[in-house]
Amino acid sequence: MNHLHLHELQSFAGTDAVSGCWKLGDHRALTLRPTLPGVLRIAHGRVWITFDHAQLDDGVRGGDHVLGAGDSLQLLPGQALVMESWEAAQNTAAYFSWDPLPATAGLAIAERRAMALAHSPQWRAGVLQPLRDLRLAAGLAATASGRLLAGLAGALTATLLAVVPRFAIDLIAGRARTALAARAFNAHSSESRAHCAIS
Length: 199
Prior knowledge:
By secondary structure, the chain is α+β, with helices and mostly antiparallel strands.
């Protein structure tokens, strides 16, 4: 064992707490649910981490992670993890800190994860393929709608061409009858005047 490592263990062994850190007792567990983006840093010991709901959401890291002294993990709001102190030596507590990050750092973390997710096979199978299917279905629906409108327009035109000539013939015939009746009346009335004038 080197001198630096021995000194490090002695400095932690004589204190109940590490400045600015929380203590997670031997074989103790806690759930961490951040509401702000932040960094979980392990100051001493080792922890075993499992992300909650990893099986339900592809955006959540799955599996078990073991972090040791000096390791860190960036977390986003809404992620939940269970952390347990885990060390080969008995009665060894882990000390950790939680440091919030500025909102812009949280966006950068989310963008990196989104880019990694966008290139994953789950993304292609779960999002891109259904999107292609929807685009194809929308194209087919647009084509079918166009054909339906063309068919309706053709049916309307055929109906109008069948009805309009009959209506036009009836209209013209009705005007002709009215005009003939008016002439017949005028002719009759002028004849009677002429007849009266002769007598």
